[in-house]
Amino acid sequence: MDDFARTERNKVKRLPQRAQYDKETIYRIVDEAPISHVGFTQEDQPVVIPMLHARIGDTLYFHGAHASRLLKLIGAGHPMSVAFTLLDGLVLARSVFHHSVNYRSAVVFGTGQLVESDEEKLIALEALTEHIAPGRWADARQPNRKELDATFVIALRIESASAKIRTGPPADDEADYALPIWAGVVPLHLQASSPIDDPKLSSGIDVPSYISNYTNTGREPNP
Amino acid sequence: MDDFARTERNKVKRLPQRAQYDKETIYRIVDEAPISHVGFTQEDQPVVIPMLHARIGDTLYFHGAHASRLLKLIGAGHPMSVAFTLLDGLVLARSVFHHSVNYRSAVVFGTGQLVESDEEKLIALEALTEHIAPGRWADARQPNRKELDATFVIALRIESASAKIRTGPPADDEADYALPIWAGVVPLHLQASSPIDDPKLSSGIDVPSYISNYTNTGREPNP
Q1: 3-state secondary structure at position B145
Q2: Which of A127, A216, B43, B181 has its CA 20 to 30 A from that of B6?
Q3: B106 touching A, CB under 8 A?
Q4: Which tens digit of pLDDT belongs to each residue from A20-38?
Q5: Considering the domain A16-169+185-212 in this protein, what is its CATH number?
Q6: Interface predicted TM-score of the whole assembly (ipTM), two decimals
Q7: Could you tell me which residues are beta bridge partners of residue A124?
Q8: From B44, B129, B151, residue closest to A79, measured CB to CB
Q9: Mutate to test the interface with A, among B47, B111, B129, B131 (most CBs of A within 10 A)
Q10: Do B196 and A179 touch (CB under 8 A)?
């Protein structure tokens, strides 16, 4: 996959050595992130809201069951920014100054459009459902006419993007390595624990294997 | 603690039954969230960036080692929005339509100001270090004059905020409960694993107890 052009909009100015612009790296982060943070401007006020997302090619999809403030605004073609962040660890340096976190983050820019056709809506809803738990779409009851009409889907064509990644141990000033202070990394990851049956679950229905095997790590990027 | 006034800016319009406006609920989410997503507008372009944060009373602090685009802009008193999101589980309903996630999220509005005094900078840096790992400030090497001068700290006075929370099992349409489809919740949480020593760590330095006991859950809100 190719790179995004470096422009004023997506160029990483702070710690540029951590920046990456290739689609493969960026999309891997987008696909692994369970949720995203969508930013838009409403009457000069920036607003950030967490959203579920899915990616197909260079398009991001978002949805809502009603025409929310956000969906109306971003569906009208206003500029948006979407951040995807995977927190991988706490980085504890000897000096306060060099404390940090290990992370993989991507920031995407584009404009949103309301999806009108049933065909694209269904493709998007399948991707959104599969993003929650791969394997789920085929198992769950598909949307009916009424639900499809009540669901608003927004497509955001990714125009520009960048990734920023920090990995590895702390980087202290040379003189500080002799200090008697522990330094290192505390790894973090999003952990799934045992599925909890719906209290109203009919008897005799087992947890499906795609759920019992669910982990948030190691997801493959979409095509 | 009291409530934030409900205004056009912070009123939750989508699923308002999930909204909360009391400071205690909102600040508990802010304090537990390891990172935040900061939104601002730069030349009509919304931008969202992940940041480390800390809260003291009604003030949020952010910092950077250099005068980044973000810090310059938010330090100049422009409006900002900051989102804090804790993902607690995947909610798998029988119907695609009722799929969801369990979460606790807070969205905060305010304007940023550059912190000028050494005294407030140090208070903020202590809070930011303690937010990464409680107990760390007293153990690490404190900032020296050069580091303090090179560190930009932004204070954001919280003017308005709201929280949105979803908990519990899926809510399916009555007719769907009879379907032979598994439904329930997959709990998620941010898990710390065993600390990794810095490869350059001097011998004989053990992992401190505040690190080996580190978990991201159950943090107490700040005063």
Answers
A1: helix
A2: B43
A3: no
A4: 899 999 999 999 999 999 9
A5: 2.30.110.10
A6: 0.93
A7: none
A8: B44
A9: B47
A10: no
